[in-house]
Design goal:
single chain; 258 residues; alpha/beta; Purple Acid Phosphatase, chain A, domain 2; six-stranded mixed beta sheet; 12 strands
């Protein structure tokens, strides 16, 4: 039994890729028709079972969902991971170049990217045609995307970023680390984040034992609503520290906002 569980957690489940579909009804969301957002985070290309072939699966899976917009939520690279190898951000961005959506592809930078060289990672993504929002905004047809830099390793100037939104259109906020959420004002319709990996392991009864968050399991995964404010956290694609996933399969998200 233990051998079978180990095989599943260290080999089979980390190789999977699922599409996590979620429909969110957001009060005050005015754009019509519903907005379909593809979400990918924590690619950690180079971690075990997450090589170039897996990146290509991620790209093909996202494009196959035909989203209106694609958002990438940081941690594209990984360094010094057990059983893995380093893949340069330029190589990763070369694969992500093939992502396409009518409203564009947007990204923020994660803590692992900054630990390597955040400017290098951002430059590689931009050369691949991806818009990087580091404390910046992008005004789209009927809403605004606002990207806040990483909470741990960058200025993460939330107030200054939101001050760049001059109209009353809905705002979707992108950030790598969901621990920013308690500071997000009600003016923001939806916050999208990654970073937690969903704990990578979700045990029956015990839950997610290790979540890299000051709030424990509170912002570990999925849809969270607090005080009328909405957060959605993807559990990501790759792994960090240990190459294990149990009841938290690698995922890309397809979030439909109504």
């Amino acid at each position: 039994m233990l051998a079978a569980l180990a095989l599943w957690a260290f080999v089979i489940e980390p190789q999977r890729l699922v599409v996590h579909r979620e429909t969110l009804t957001i009060p005050g969301w005015s754009p019509r028709p519903p907005l379909r957002i593809a979400v990918a985070g924590d690619l950690h290309a180079g971690s075990p079972w997450t090589g170039i072939a897996k990146l290509r699966r991620v790209v093909q899976t996202i494009n196959g969902q035909h989203p209106d917009v694609i958002v990438l939520l940081g941690d594209y690279v990984i360094q010094d991971v057990l059983g893995g190898h380093f893949i340069p951000p330029e190589t990763i961005a070369g694969e992500l170049r093939l992502l396409h959506a009518p409203l564009g592809v947007f990204a923020v930078i994660g803590n692992h990217d900054n630990w390597l060289d955040g400017r290098r990672v951002a430059a590689a993504l931009r050369r691949a045609g991806i818009t990087v929002l580091e404390d910046e905004v992008a005004h789209l047809a009927t809403f605004t995307l606002a990207g806040v830099s990483d909470l741990w390793t960058a200025p993460h100037n939330l107030a200054a970023t939101l001050a760049k939104v001059t109209g009353r259109e809905p705002i979707i906020l992108l950030t790598h680390n969901p621990d920013l959420f308690p500071h997000v004002p009600a003016r923001v319709s939806l916050t999208l984040a990654a970073h937690t990996h969903g704990g990578q392991v979700n045990l029956p009864l015990a839950g997610r034992l290790i979540v890299p968050s000051h709030f424990g399991q509170r912002y570990a995964a999925g849809h969270i609503e607090e005080g009328g404010r909405h957060l959605w956290v993807t559990t990501g694609v790759g792994t960090s520290i240990l190459p294990v996933r149990f009841r938290v399969p690698p995922e890309v998200g397809l979030v439909e906002v109504r």
